[in-house]
Amino acid sequence: MDDRNAVSPSSYLQNRELSWLDFNKRVLDQGADETVPLLERLNFISIFWSNLQEFFMVRVGSLTDLSLVKKQILDTKSGMTPAQQLDAIYRRCFDLYTDQETIYGSVRAQLAERGIRRLHHKDLNDEQRSFLSKYAHDNIIPFLSPQIINSRHPFPHLENGALYVVLRLDEDNTSKKAAKNHGAEGVTLGLVPMPRQCPRVIQIPGDGFQYVLLEHAIEMVVDEVFNMYSVKHTNIICVTRNADLDASEGTDESDYDYREHMKRILKKRTRLAPVRLESERKLSDTLRRHLLDRLGLKPHQAYATCLPLNMSYTFGLASRLPENLREGLVNKPFSPQWPPCLSRKERILDQVSKRDVLLSYPYESMEPFVRLLQEAAADPEVISIKITLYRLASQSQLAEALIAAAERGKQVTALFELRARFDENNNIEWSQRFEQAGCNVIYGFRDYKVHSKICCITRRTKNGPQSITQLGTGNYNEKTARLYTDFSYITADADIGRDAAEFFRNMALESTSNSYEVLWVAPLQIKPMILANIDEQMRLAEAGKPCGLFFKTNSVTDIDIMEKIEQASRAGVPITMFVRGISCLVPGVAGHTENVRVVSIVGRLLEHSRIYGFGPADDMSIYLSSADLMTRNMDKRIEIAWPVRDESLRTQVIDYLNTCMADTAKLRELRSDRTYTPLRYFLKDGEAPFDAQAAMIEQAYDAVASEEARKSEKKRIKKAQKLAKEQQRATEAAAAQTPETTMSAQDDEAVTTSASTAECDVTHEESPAIKTVVPDAIEPPLDTTLAVSQTIVGAAADRDDPSAIVRFLARAIVRLKKRR
Question: d(Cα 149, Cα 131) in Å, to the nearest integer?
Answer without folding.
Answer: 32
